[in-house]
Amino acid sequence: MADGLITRPVAGRGGGGEGAGDVRRPWRQTLLLRYRLTPWWARVLAVFVLSRVVSTALLLGFARVQATNAWTVAQPDYGSFAKMWDGQWYYIVSQLGYPSVLPMTADGHVAQNQWAFLPVYPVLVRGLMVLTGAPFAPTAVFVSVAAAALTALVFFRILRRFLPEGSALFGVVLLCVAPLSPLLQVAYAESLFLLLLAVALLLLLRRQYWLMLAALAVASFTRPGVVAFGLALALHWGHRWLTRSSEPFDVRERVTVGVVAVLTAVLGFAWPIVAAVATGRLDAYTATELSWRADYIGYGHLLPFTSWIQGANWWLPGGSGLLFLAVVVVGFGLFLVSPWARRLPIDLRFWVASYALYLLAVFFPQSSTFRVLMPMFPLLGALAVPRSRVWRVSLVVIAILLQWVWLYYCWWVDGYDWTPP
Hints:
- The structure is a single chain.
- The chain is an all-alpha fold.
- The chain has one domain (35-411).
- Helix content is 63%, strand content 0%.
- The protein has 21 helices and no strands.
- It has helices spanning 18-24, 27-37, 40-64, 78-82, 86-96, 120-132, 136-159, 165-177, 190-205, 209-219, 226-242, 251-268, 270-279, 284-290, 294-297, 307-315, 320-336, 346-362, 369-372, 380-383, 389-411.
- The chain is globular and about 70 Å long.
- Mean pLDDT is 92; it is low at 1-21.
- This is Mannosyltransferase PIG-V.
- The chain crosses the membrane at residues 40-63, 136-155, 162-180, 212-235, 255-275, 322-341, 348-364, 393-412.
- Keywords: Endoplasmic reticulum, Glycosyltransferase, GPI-anchor biosynthesis, Membrane, Transferase, Transmembrane, Transmembrane helix.
- Pathway: Glycolipid biosynthesis; glycosylphosphatidylinositol-anchor biosynthesis.
């Protein structure tokens, strides 16, 4: 043509044909094709790596302005900064184990000690230290990051059971950039517990109960909370009985679920039993846990479902705290039956409700509350459903901003700090 433009490729002329068509393919179409050819696990890991870049930058930024404190020197390296707070306790467990005689305060109460920190994470870190010769901090960070990456992969498989692929991947994005996601790369057991919990939930959805029990057995010595899974399984049993006309629930499976539920509940009390046997004191574990709330309300006994009332009165005295607590509990209950939450499989909602009830029974609300809420991560699946680009971008931006807020108030140490993570 006179103007030199060719509007249609001609096979066999000057490299035209299919190759020329590829050259003119719009870049967006090319990216979409490459995306579709990428394995699902590679997409999930790409999301995870990018999110770690963000969280690492935030952690290093706070480390650069960190003054000398009880755990580190000024401007500590990443490993030292990642080993603060409970990380130091896990380090002590990895080196010294657990005391057979409980330490006591000057006024005769059980003092803070290692029995509050369950053994799977520090023992695993210790084993890798022996094998590699590496020090505690980088080894602990490696275990946490590896467990977090696997958690992202398992979470994607959970979400794909009820969400399209794009929404499932965005659910993983929300997990990876969540306000407390920096905890996934420090010397804390949260990553490992979330991995075991995610595996257990996936196996529950697949009705692989005995394999699920194996995962829960390890989880019961990783972080507290497995007893709540026993309640979730009891609810699961009841639901399957009521819906047996649509999903068969024969006698063998009824017995299996019942036995696994009971064993799971027993596993939830395994570590307190171990502590009692090792120290000769029946309340060794609970007395140790109560020592952490003594700075707020003094020493006392654990009375189920009273801790949140005590906390509400401590944080907001004069009745306003109780009113706020009632609004939060009712609001959360309504959310679990809302159309948003009902997008989740009922077994995931059973877990979230059971874990929330467990926290109401035993936990004292303080700055660690946000951390102990992390096992409710299946709720992120509800937030991942809307496909609005504005919605999704807004959630990611807000989550990253809240990472900074959480690191500022709960991780970074500024003088006397009473907001432990």
